[in-house]
Amino acid sequence: MRKRSRTWRLWVPLLSVAVLVLGAGGWVVHQNEYDLKEERVTITGGRQPLHGVLARPTGAAGPTGLVVFVHGDGPIDATHDGWYRPIWEAMARAGYATLSWDKPGVNGAPGNWLDQTMQDRADETLAAIRWARTRPGIDPARIGLWGASQAGWVMPKAARQSTDVAFVIGVGTAVNWLQQGRYDLLAHLRKDGASQAETDARIAKSERRLTAMRENRTFEQYRASGADVTGITPERWDFDLRNYRSDATEDLTAVKAPVLLILGGRDLNVDSADTEAGYRRTLTTPGQLQVRRFEDATHNLVPESVEDSELKSTVLAIAAPRSLFAPGYFDAMRQFLTSINRPKG
Length: 345
Prior knowledge:
Elements: H1 2-31, E1 36-43, E2 50-57, E3 64-70, H2 85-92, E4 96-101, H3 118-133, E5 138-148, H4 155-161, E6 168-171, H5 177-191, H6 196-214, H7 219-224, H8 234-243, H9 249-253, E7 259-264, H10 272-282, E8 289-294, H11 304-307, H12 310-319, H13 329-339
Parallel strand pairs: 3-4, 3-5, 5-6, 6-7, 7-8
Antiparallel strand pairs: 1-2, 2-4
Helix pairs in contact: 3-4, 5-6
């Protein structure tokens, strides 16, 4: 009996660990399941087909509104590596489907996103809206845009060009490309504790690059001048050359749709105070603009304490992805969406 008792005492902690692992595994699976019906779609009608994902609310009784997602910078796929799904679910709970697509050249999609201008991206967005208006179960009167960061130069163009854009949700957007770039540079240098000499050197490098762009130099000409091109590809140079003059002011002035602007107070990429001031100057129709600030949130609308900790952000991304985002962020979007006109009939 004594031998059997010792054996049992050895197995108890092992079984406890196994139960915890299995339980944690079940929790992780549950946390990464979303109350959505996703389908892969091909969006036609634009310059090239777009490979997309249409995510609908489960159990929708009638036509739903639709939020068309406009990506920020970079080679982003339709789900943004799963980052969008908690946002989609929050919108589904407000009665809205969501539509997103792989950027051209991403996941085998035709084209190359680095070949695009902001106007090209606006045209692409409007093509997606025209396609969506023909889909069964979508209310064509309630189709709007959600976009982050670089989308701030795309969505105002689309909303200015088409009354089919019923609303706009901008997250961490900027107004002027060059001002945003300078703010980004200086904010990150301060965050990293750069010396004055390091700061001066980085500013001089940035100014040299900007001068070359103003002179419309090619990447090869810039490199041949002896400039440091570390981290710059010819394709990226051409993309920036086409787009660096972007400014949303004129387009915003012509936007008639309601706008929700969401900003993070700890944003190192975009000067949130400058963005808010710019939107308030241009969107002057009473009640048109709503601004929600999350003072402890970063550019990604994640609490700074989470984003600055690789351990915290990794654990939450795996075990509780909805908890990555700033408290109240989902509620702000749901409240805005439920305030948009109800379906007719």
